[in-house]
Amino acid sequence: MTPSGLSTGRPGAPGRTPSLAAMNPDLDVDTQQLRDTATATGATAARVREAAAAAPSPVPGPRWAAVDATASITDAAVRALRDLGAALTDTVTLITTTIAGYDDADARAAARLRGAR
């Protein structure tokens, strides 16, 4: 951590100020890998949503305490799966938005380079 409390992202002694000469301003992003990750995450979200939707209805029968406890646990699990599916879908949206941002930045940089010729 730097004196300001921000992490430098590098291991080392706390309080040690990073050297500007050691910083690398280049950032390489593999947008195809991000697209593949978004696709895989979207597929996982779909499977999680399907799992939540496929929860069976309780079988009619005597109302024992174990039945009520099981129903309560099942409801909680279904809610958790729905929340997880929604969070995964949100993650796909964030990844897709990030890809668009990187693609736009690349297009702007390419236009600047073309203009510099």
Describe, in short, the structure shown.
Residues 1-24 are annotated as: Disordered. With 117 residues, this protein is mainly alpha-helical.
Notes on the structure:
The protein has 117 residues and is an all-alpha fold. The protein has one domain (28-116). It has helices at residues 31-53, 65-116. The longest helix is centred in the last third of the chain and has 52 residues, at 65-116. It is elongated, with a radius of gyration of 24 Å. Residues 1-8 have low confidence and may be disordered. Residues 1-24 are annotated as: Disordered.
Features:
disordered N terminus, mainly alpha, 2 helices, single chain, 117 residues
Structural class: mainly alpha
The main β sheet shows up as: none
Would you identify the regions where 5 or more consecutive residues have pLDDT less than 50?
1-8
Silhouette:
elongated
Helix segment tally = 2
Alpha-carbon Rg, integer? 24 Å
Strand content: under 5%
| Terminus-to-terminus distance | 43 Å
Q: Please, how many domains? A: 1
Question: In which range does the helix fraction lie?
Answer: 55-70%
DSSP, total strands: 0
Assembly classification: single chain
Series of secondary-structure elements, N-terminal to C-terminal? HH
Mean model confidence by pLDDT: 82
Write the layout of secondary structure elements.
Elements: H1 31-53, H2 65-116
Helix pairs in contact: 1-2
